[in-house]
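Rotation project, supervised by the postdoc (A.L.). Task for the rotation student: set up a whole-complex structure prediction and record inputs and outputs verbatim in this book. Inputs entered:
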Amino acid sequence: MLKSLFILFISLLGILKWVIEVHGESGFCSAPSSSSENKIILESESIYHKVTNPTLSPIHLRDLPGFTRSVYRKDHAVITPESHVFSPLPDWKNTLGAYLVTPAMGSHFVMYLAKMEGLSRSALPPQDVERFIFVLQGTVTVTNVSGTVKKLLVDSFVYLPANFEHSIQCETTASLVVFERRYASLQIHMPEQIVGSTDMQPLLDTPGEIFELRKLLPTSAAYDFNIHIMDFQPGEFLNVKEVHYNQHGLLLLEGQGIYRLGDNWYPVQAGDAIWMAPFVPQWYAALGKNRSRYLLYKDVNRNPLL
Ligand SMILES: *[C@@H]1O[C@H](CO)[C@@H](O)[C@H](O)[C@H]1NC(C)=O
Ligand SMILES: *[C@@H]1O[C@H](CO)[C@@H](O)[C@H](O)[C@H]1NC(C)=O
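Outputs recorded:
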């Protein structure tokens, strides 16, 4: 009798452990919390929270030490969140950065994630380098030489011309994706500071294509790159199997699908970043149940011989 009670007790313990292990993963059993606390957590979740809180290790892969979906090839790279390495950004205050694309790969720009913490502040980019910042989570303020302060929420952005004095500050926490490149000047055209948000940008025509396109910067000659926001419903894909002279840095903000790069087909999901060298064959198909949205750097408006 005692023995069978003991066995029953041990089995119950086993089941309890299993419940904690399985459900603890998805947060059901993490620290007991009242529903009002849950609500606060949900409300503060940014629409791009999958980028800032990525699934580092899908459950069926968690016992595969050394496994990563990241790849680095001569003409492209896929950098997935389990590979991110953050370190203090030079000269920034209280900010960690992870460079995802740099000229060491062959690009003419850098793309990095910046995690700003309490009372953090940016440093200026090097001489003649322009900067674009997009907010993924939290709130930052931008102060420029006129002393004007602009507040940037999730989904908003600022473009800062080369040698334009400014400071980005954050009181609590914020995550940014940042692009910088040495400005290709045309003398007669002068770019200006641009502040905006994705939802304020008009949808543009995409002849022959089905995806929705917004451009965050003016298309005029003063700007030597643009940032595109591209939305695909599940099942939609690029019609043109693109091969072109422009280079790209891409951050998948929502959804999942298959990215073709050269002769490789990569399953990708929100949080993944991609580097595409000029002329690498590229194509995307959105899959799953939800919209795919990505943000894409593209160099434009300059003669390739310059
Ligand atoms: C500073 O920012 C404000 C607000 O965005 C803008 O109106 C002003 O033109 C900027 N100053 C300069 C020198 O660009
Ligand atoms: C898909 O979108 C629905 C409705 O917006 C949402 O409830 C669900 O969590 C999303 N699924 C994924 C996998 O993101």
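Student's summary: Confidence is low (pLDDT under 50) at residues 1-39.
Supervisor addendum: DSSP finds three helices and 20 strands in the chain.
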